[in-house]
Amino acid sequence: MVSQPHIVFLTETWLSNKIPSSLIIGALPYTILRFDRSSRGGGVAIIIRDYLSYSTVTLPSSEHEITCIDLFHQSAYIRLCVVYRPPTYSLSKSESLLTCLSDIHASSPHPIVLIERRVIGDLCMTHMIMNGFTIIPRSLFYVYKPLRDRTSSFGINIELTTSTPRYHSFPVRTSRWYSQLPDSIRTAPNIRVFKRRLENHPIIAHLAKLT
Fold first, then answer.
1. Which branch of life, at top level (predicted)?
2. Within a domain: residue 1?
3. pLDDT digits (tens, 9 = 90+) for 21-67
């Protein structure tokens, strides 16, 4: 918490009910909202400054690793969700997750203006895309710059866990998806050519246009 962000989104927390929230937060002026997996691994969490006004969003399903809040500011609010999609998800399980996110995206229970909805997290989307699952609703994706601009107008500093903000998806299990790339990309003579060829790949290029 060196930068003292207002909100932190975490995926793969590996927390369980044996670890109390007080052990994580300590004396820091934060509240933690958790979704712990009953088995080993996974889990998501939102760590938020305790003076911010927010409410937790009731999820339509408890089978997916999602935590969602509505962040209030004057007469408007932003809906923010953090989600972890394990790379082992089947197509049917992935479709169920997208349905759940669509329901969260569509609901708006507050009688004030909803100005933004964003899903943030580790969706393992490169792995999913390289296996042909490319029909993903654009509105469900987290887009880095618009969210950063929006929260800046709120006076909110959000700490994000993603490392490649230009794209909707990013590689999280390189060895798993690298072998599925076309030869023209894998045989690039240097990292600069590799990056350019990867960005020109039809699927990646299509996603880049949506940012």
1. Eukaryota
2. no
3. 988 888 889 999 999 888 878 889 999 998 899 999 988 888 899 99
Phi then psi dihedrals of residue 118, to 5 deg: -140, 140
Work out the average pLDDT over 147-172: 45
CB of 25 closer than 8 Å to CB of 46: no
**Number of domains composing the chain:** 2
SS3 for 151?
helix
The reply to whether 114 and 197 lie within a common domain is no
Q: Are residues 47 and 90 in the same domain?
A: yes
Tens-place pLDDT, residues 95-113: 888 788 878 877 777 777 7
Q: Is 182 helix (H, G, I), strand (E, B) or coil?
A: coil
Query: Do 123 and 27 share a structural domain?
Result: yes
Between CA 1 and CA 3 the distance in angstroms is 6
H or E element, residue 84:
strand 76-84
- Structural domain contains residue 136: yes
Q: Which two tokens stand for residue 53?
A: 């006004």
Domain residues for the domain of 99 are: 7-167
Q: For 106-138, give the DSSP string.
A: H---SSSEEEEEEEEEE--HHHHHHTT-----G
Residue whose pair of structure tokens reads 């197509």 in the numeric block: 91
Does 162 lie in the same domain as 98? yes
> Do 163 and 186 fall into the same domain?
no
Query: Which structure tokens are listed for 25?
Result: 């937060």
Cβ atoms of 126 and 171 closer than 8 Å: yes
Beta strands 44-49 and 54-56, pairing class:
unpaired
Token pair recorded at residue 117: 């909805």
